[in-house]
Amino acid sequence: MGTALGAQAGEARLREIATSAGFKQVRRVAETPFNMVLEVTA
Q1: Distance (Å, rounded) from C-alpha 26 to C-alpha 9?
Q2: Environment class of 8 (CB within 10 Å of its CB; exposed 0-12, middle 13-18, buried 19+)
Q3: Half-sphere exposure of 29 (CA within 13 A, CB side)
């Protein structure tokens, strides 16, 4: 069974999962009071 992230996972947890999956860079590209957009690159 996979990891359940949900809407409240947070940047730190998303960054941890992306890097453990082999992605090299994670950066926040946009943010509002309700949303956060991360760019994940290999």
Answers
A1: 15
A2: exposed
A3: 7
Q: CA nearest 3: which of 21, 15, 17?
A: 17
Give the Cα separation of 17 and 10 in Å (integer). Answer: 11
Residue partners of 31: CB distance under 8 A and separation at least 6: 37
Confidence class for position 1, pLDDT limits 50, 70, 90: confident
Per-residue pLDDT tens over the stretch 2-35: 888 887 899 999 999 999 999 999 999 999 999 9
